[in-house]
Target: XdhC family protein
Amino acid sequence: MDRALLAELNAARAERRAAVLVTELGSGTQRLVHEAGIAADPLADPIRAAIRSGKSGTIETQGGPVFLNAHLPPPRLVAIGAVHITQALARMAPLAGYDVEIIDPRTAFATAERFPGVSLRAEWPQDVLDARPLDAYTALCAITHDPKIDDLPLIRALQAGCFYVGALGSRKTHGKRVERLRDAGLGEAEIARIEAPIGADIGASTPGEIAVAILASVVEAFRKRKMFAERRGETKAA
Model:
């Protein structure tokens, strides 16, 4: 790989953007295809499949064999709320390959004793997310049940195209949330992306079970996700 291509790939990694390095094995010619530019590439379908799966491999084309090397940002899970559910979720999610970050300005909850070895920020979400923005390879789970804490991260997650956005609360609670998000200027298609009540419908009742349900939804959303550009297109079309 030449230096210019390597620099371009490193920049994509630093910005947490997916890309596929395409190498024509016969000639050695290489190009880097970013997620936003997949549709314009002649190998759009296999490149899109490589990004969805995260797996690299060789494909056969009319011009000969081509190796697709997929480079994806490590998926992360940002949980708003240092509660019992997130204590369980923080232990489970890394086993499934997710980096976990927990944000909660309530210092009585966000303590190292309750969350040993976890990236924990006892700050207001807007301050943390300004410094470390959400992106298409992030799942956002709002679990505090407090609009003052949950609403802004939900808005940021929808605007950033997070692959999963979920919020704790009953249908009645979510109905009020939807009204607030409309008032904040979000469209119906964006708001509809929020999974609420949060987590797969497995009849969960304990914090540990709810954490299992949340992680199941996150994994499903990641593996079945649409490309970021496709999601943005749907939002604009709506």
